[in-house]
Amino acid sequence: MAGLAFCPALWNITAMAASIHQFLIGNDNYGILIHDEASGATATIDAGEAAPILVALKQTGWTLTDIWVTHHHGDHVAGIPELKAATGAKVTAPLADKDRVPLVDHGVKEGDSVTLGSTRAAIIETPGHTANHIAYYCADDGLLFAGDTLFSLGCGRLFEGTPAQMWSSLQKLRALPAATKLYCGHEYTQSNARFALTVDPENAALKQRAREIDALRAKGAFTLPSTIGAENAENPFLRADDPLIAARLGMAGASPVDVFTELRARKNRA
Ligand code: ZN
Ligand code: FE
Fold first, then answer.
1. Strand partners of residue 92
2. CATH number of the domain where residue 225 is located
3. pLDDT band per the 50, 70, 90 thresholds, residue 254
4. Who surrounds ion ligand 2 at CB < 5 A?
5. Residue 97, helix vs strand vs coil
């Protein structure tokens, strides 16, 4: 792979049929390209800005065929018109957001799947951050593109959904196989780790992870992808039904939704 020689930190190749190229767009939005080796098809997960995605395509030598949109926020869709004009890529987005995402070709909902050559992604509806947010899950390659629903050690803010909806969405994602690689819309892990330690201060795995994250960020490296297994052990937002977290919040016996609501409220104030 020629790219390895010039920019090792930007490369993250899976051992399966699909390769991933992860890069930053602006301060903290992640750009992600997924490339199907057999067919040469390539998708970008969201498209907040066209220019950095076009640069990434040039660096990889990959040809964009698809834009897979997780939700309608500008930092995820603003680059679509320019990118589509430049590449002719086909836009897949939540069916219910067809009027809020530019130039949608293919609307999808829970249970649908999309293909990129031989690579297949299942659509998982994950309302909460927005009403119609979706995640893309490639079971064969063990990849989850969670957008702004699940972050490493955190979760998205509730702009359009209720805590009960978000908690239900997170329960779907945490049930995926532990080895699943988690890709997210933003690099928020370090601030999420600081908050997670305030509600789960004696979690040895979390403390170790926080140290690793600080070391990665100190050298400007990415903290993602994470894994579903690591998140289940370390992310307090996936553990709203864990009596230990409830007790830490002074909410022993409270419902998971109430615990989740309190976690999200504390994070918003942090
Ligand atoms: Zn968003
Ligand atoms: Fe975002």
1. 68, 106
2. 3.60.15.10
3. very high
4. 75, 148, 185
5. helix
